[in-house]
Amino acid sequence: MKKKQFEKELADLEFELAKLQETVARKRMKVAVIFEGRDAAGKGGAIKTIMRRMNARIWRIAALPKPSDRERTQWYFERYVRHLPAGGEIVLFDRSWYNRAVVEPVMGFCTDEEYEVFMREAPLFEKMLIDSGLVLIKFWLHVSPEEQEARFQDRACDPRKRWKLSPVDLKARERWIEATRYRDMMFERTGTDYAPWLVADGNDKRRARLNIIRAILDRVPYEFNEDAFEPLALPPRPAHGNGDYRDPPLEALNLITDYYPD
To answer: What is the DSSP letter of 97?
Structure first.
């Protein structure tokens, strides 16, 4: 998709996201959106696009590091529970509890028993969340082997993106087939009527981001509150220098260097 078309479509969707945001805040709704997928599938880019013009007090990103020694002794879902939304919040999970469904077994970070316990508990856990009033949306971003390879090569050669390549990413690259099998089992065993997996084709990043936003809008009930979007009448600003106070000249302040003079 061309950038010009993308920006035009995104501008329309951002207005709809603003309506959703206002509805969630006003009605104290709880929304959690999970982004899963292979490395370089576009999870972070999709999240950044959604957040571009949204209120960070309503929308939060949860991107958890590897568990601490203490967290490893806790119930697996416990550290994720702390990041779930309260009323009036939307949380975007950049990877989630589903690390245990694909990444951990592929990389040997969990035992077979721990994996099986998770696969049994995940649908029950999500059912409890939904029964409590939370709106849960689960995305898997698909990327082809060829497209992932191109993105990995770009990251490997661009110092600005090198941080995106971790040793785990490189090992997972070698275990594509095994990861695919675990992904298929995840779809089969944790995709439910109340929390289905939604697959987005991430090979075209721009198209994927638009489709993901549209899918969120289709699944979170929102409305247009006309009063909330009426143009605001701004109060008059006092005339500069009015009264006893005078602004000091800018040069008298601790002004940073102008690195880009005309």
So the answer is: G
Largest interatomic CA distance in the chain:
75
The pLDDT confidence band at residue 5, using thresholds 50, 70 and 90, is very high
How would you class 54 by CB atoms within 10 Å of its CB: exposed for 0-12, middle for 13-18, buried for 19 or more?
A: middle
Residue 38 and residue 41: Cα distance in Å, rounded? 5
Q: Is residue 252 part of a domain?
A: no
If 0-12 CB within 10 Å is exposed, 13-18 middle and 19+ buried, where does residue 237 land? exposed
Give the pLDDT of residue 54: 98
Report residue 123 as tokens: 């649908």
Contact (Cβ atoms closer than 8 angstroms) between residue 141 and residue 35: yes
For residue 111, give the CATH number of its domain. 3.40.50.300
Query: Structural domain tally of the chain?
Result: 1
Residue 197 reports pLDDT greater than 70: yes
Write out the residue range of the structural domain in which residue 184 sits: 3-229
- Cα-based angle 217, 49, 202 (whole degrees, multiple of 5): 80
> Does 79 map to a domain?
yes
Examine residue 27 and state whether it is found in any structural domain, yes or no: yes
In a domain, 255, yes or no: no
